[in-house]
């Protein structure tokens, strides 16, 4: 038995006027596109309830123009009143109506993916700069990009943002900001990303509160499906977002994004001159929810929870991980259970529940969040999967209540305030050594998760228990279109899940073939590397370059410190899994992400027999991790002890040194 010790010290209703909808369908048949019917007239009619209003309406049985003359019958329809036989023949209308709905769902999902990608990318870009100095640098002010909806609380700004040309410009700016990947340096990329996030939130606020019920329903669901699309694409790129990791993928997604944006602009989705300064018309379509502050806090917390713990399907495994041989579920293939849990949560959201069932669901979600924090290995992973199902289950209901608020700018600004505050709190929990007031927040993820669940629970348990489509006052002539939209949403959801599971299966099969290729020999080489989470000197995540460098060394045993990137402010990806699959090495990730360390990964060309994860004494400084492990090197058991001491020159270093010395003696 041979023991080695390594350490490193580093520093859019059909508005009740069937005639108008018939015209839209005929126009679609002639031009091959969908013209969305306007909702403003319908919502204004619904607002008139007096006798004078009823007398002013045209009598049933004849179609009357505004000047009192009888309308000319539409080609292919009877000369009848609105609501009686004004639809074109079913064989012609139905296919024309279905295809644009499908296009709308797909386009909004692509745009939702782009929005999520921007929200994921800005925090790590901000964090890159203080990472170099281990102190706040001032670039943290770019987080104000998340507060752009506050301008929409001002009437002229709201009307300006609703202008079709301004909204089209904002859409194109949002998509175009993906080109920040090609920026020459980190500073320019940060500026472009901040502009993209601001534009995305402005578009999201305007479009979620404008248009008719069907449009808004599809837009909100597109945002949620965009999240699933993001997870699936990250599966195929081994936890990385392809739009930020490949020039080819970035160009392809940028092109598809522009096509989706232009499709939404050209289809009439951004043409709402009649609605630019009548927010109330839109709010009447929904059961108004006056508590915008509470709903905003809950929605922002829900967004952050989805980013924090479910930003990538491997994260649950990294929260539940332990040492070999009982490590808990590996990210691949068991990340597929996380994807399935999230998808089943969205499917459950199509149901309406009683207050008792809602309360029981919340208790299950609350218990699962505690289990993820305090249980270990498989138990923690099961709790995390249940939490994922609960999270996506409440997404449509909380989003529907959120867009029912009568103050769009205030509601979205409040949501982003909660989102950013919780994001910074998450940073302070781990980086407490390098930020002001960090000593009071250190290792307090349990308080953060508890606060998030409380906010979600209060909003979830108060108000009507309806699915998202029930939030809107859907007239009977609209229901078929909502039903078709739901079918398309479910179909796209399970198509995405199937593609994701296929990707995991192919990756797993390839990885298993690579393992065990270490040739028998008498000696081995080892190395240790302060990784800084795989960022290069220009602020790009460069795992490909890292893998090439590691290959050149020919090392059999590799320890990489500062490797836990499964945090939202670092990138929410898994370098350990990526490098292990790329190099064909056995891996050990530790300690758990919930332990607030910067992480250690061990890569071995030879099987890891056992390992233990340690937290070294940290009375003053950051939490320092260590791993003791045994490797089967060509039939011989070799022990290793690896540690990260940190960068303090204080008594803490001495206590950590003593702890590592003890581990070496025991091993």
Task: Summarize the structure in words.
It is a single chain. With 667 residues, the protein is an alpha/beta fold. It contains 22 helices and eight strands. The protein has a four-stranded mixed β-sheet. A hairpin with a 2-residue loop joins strand 7 and strand 8. The longest helix is centred in the N-terminal third of the chain and has 44 residues, at 90-133. The termini are close together.
Question: What would you call the quaternary organization?
Answer: single chain
Structural class: alpha/beta
Percentage of β-strand residues: 5-15%
Strand order of the largest sheet: 1-8-7-6
Q: How many H/I helical runs?
A: 22
Q: What proportion of the residues is helical, as a percent range?
A: 55-70%
Shape: globular
Residue runs with pLDDT of under 50 for 5 or more positions: 6-98, 272-287
Distance between the termini: 9 Å
- Overall pLDDT score: 82
How do the helices and strands follow one another from N- to C-terminus? EHHHHHHHHHHHHHHHHHHHEHEHEEEEEH
Radius of gyration: 28 Å
Number of DSSP-assigned strands: 8
User: Can you summarize the main beta sheet?
Assistant: 4 strands, mixed
